[in-house]
Amino acid sequence: DRQSMALNVEAYIAAIEPDTRIVYITNPHSPSGTWLDESEVRRIVEASAHALVVLDEAYVHYSDTPGYIHLAAEYENLAVLRTFSKAFGLAGLRIGFGVARRPIIDTLLAVKPTWNMGQLQIVGGVAALDDDEHVERTIQTIVKNREYVQGRFQELDRFRMVGGSRSNFFLVELLDPDIDSTGVFLGLLERGVVVKDGSVSFRGLDDRFLRCDVNLQPHMDRLIDALADLS
């Protein structure tokens, strides 16, 4: 669905072959930020009983839901992944965690490097899990400014913010047939604004899309003003 960029679950399931070994789901989806309901995730997992299903919830904190970690207890072929790089703000530590049934965990432990985490990573990760106030403040800032910039996009007639993002980024569709994503990317770069060119950064997107991060209000204003200046 080009209008909402929502995942076509029927097509996704149809693409799963008998010899498929791993089925990978990002939820919220990257780069669209769209969200799969629990029933849709269950359908994919149950259609992939012969394969390992990896549910990547890197951006789940921005979705206003607790996510689907609880499903890992129900399905023996499901692993749910989380990261400390996004809402926790610890990208430099390169840490995360996964939740799955014991057979999957045992297989991973058998090939895990012996010393794959240092003391700083362990202490930082534990501290982050205890700091609910910081995470909640980060989430609320993103959600507020995501709504703000969506309102500001109403001022533009050559660009459309694709609605429905449940993440800290969103897609922008180029409505003017005389421009393309690379040209707009370069034009924004000249104005000190960095976004991602959909035709270069993301497999499956064409030259009608950019991906932009949600940031503080002054940065969102700068994005809108730069896009307007291109017009």
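the 2nd protein, sequnce then structure:
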Amino acid sequence: MLKRILPIPFMVIIRLYQYLISPVLGAHCRFSPSCSEYAHQALSRYGLIKGTCLAVCRILKCHPFHPGGIDPVP
């Protein structure tokens, strides 16, 4: 139960980013799903610790020298 409750504040922050900030900045993510959606799914599926680790690894891959593409949450 705690595994599902702890990531909720972070998931809310991600959704706020998606609805309030991302439309202003425009879509720049080279991956599908976007890095923010990937982070939301990872936190939802794996909890705070593993979800955060997966999200950070994904964000570190999101740069101009990586080809991007389809990269779902494992």
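The radius of gyration is 12 Å. The beta strands are 31-32, 69-70.
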